[in-house]
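pasting for ref
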Amino acid sequence: MLNRRILRIKAFKVLYSYAENPDLTLKEALGSLETSEEATRDLYLYMLSLIPALTGVAAHRIEAARGKFNPTEEDLNPNMKFVRNGISALLEGDPDFQRLIEKKKLSWAQQDAFLSDLYNRVRSRQYFIDYMASDASSIKEDAALWKCVFEEEFEDDPSLAAILEDTSIHWADDLAYALGTCIRSLDEIGRLGRWSFPPLYQSDILLAQGREASSDSEFVKKLLTTAYGRFSEYNSLIAGSVSKWDRDRLYTTDIVLIAMGLAEAEAFPDIPVKVTINEYVEISKYYSTPKSRGFVNGILDRLIKQRESEGIIVKNNI
């Protein structure tokens, strides 16, 4: 599930916490990293559990309409296609999925207003209107409907963002990634007719497919451990590479990003320098200032070359 880009981001956030709070021990830092990793998969489960929750809203409305004093013909004979969608039934009937939801105490029970507004919005979409008008009925078609919902309704929803922020401090930046994983799961359900809990790391998925892959778990732990242990050294290197005037204007985020890049370049001889620099430049676009991209790129490139000339950074023939 978690690829190396998001693992780098998580390690960066933990190292940033250490830069702001030097009393943070390595054990605490690694524990925080593990918690953050699991939280992303919890968010994936939470968003996937919205499928039965939203289906339940539709079912409740149909029952309420049937119970009106003067129900219309449409109230008495509603289109039940959405309420009977196979994805909701599959997730509700999957013991592993339900066990995980219960174990992690993930529930939409207190979010009635959000679910009601979401259902109203979804019902107005053309993709939903076309789905309800189609005579076709299959798990693949149901999966395609939910993919549209996950692709179009959540990423920029301020109400959802507020719910996630209130639920977990670890979910603030992980929604887009969790939604992508939900969409891949829906593809799999539509193709195979079953749900499976994704492994925590992308490398585990590749290994299960019989493909060669180095451990992402070991990668991120080694990355954070190296950056944590040498942070003071890296901080001094960075400060020494800029003028006194620029030194006073260094941002902590930039220092941490460059330190992460140096740690990766030193700890992983098989990862090309260009890949490492590109990764932290990309991360700087989202977590630092508009000028950070050029600064991180320039300083990291200069310091890596310096460490290579000193024999501290040694790359394999790649």
